[in-house]
Fold:
Amino acid sequence: MSSKSTCIAAAALVTVTCAAEAGWIGNVSYYHVQGKTASGRNVAGVGSFNAAHRTLPFGSRIRITNLANNRSVVVTITDRGPFIHGRHIDVSARAARALGIRSVGVARVRMELVGAS
Structure:
């Protein structure tokens, strides 16, 4: 590997590490899910603060903070999605209500990894 490639790889690693510590910013929407999620868990058994993300492992816990009103909730990833361009995470209707986004539908949020089960 050339020294130029090493520098680029090192710069990318630092960027990812800093982003993971500070969280990331994106758009949240909410969805109504019934029955079983993609993880195979029954929604009623999971609880009401669950979410869908395209790649995070099932069981990951994410703190979501609404940047408009500073309300936050911790959700558990139990499903896959969202499948609409520009949206980063879908939360359950109850989590959306706690975040204050039910009336607007989509909001800008900060997401921070809290842990995984």
In short: The chain has a mean pLDDT of 79. The first helix runs from residue 3 to 22. The domain at 23-115 is CATH 2.40.40.10 (Barwin-like endoglucanases).
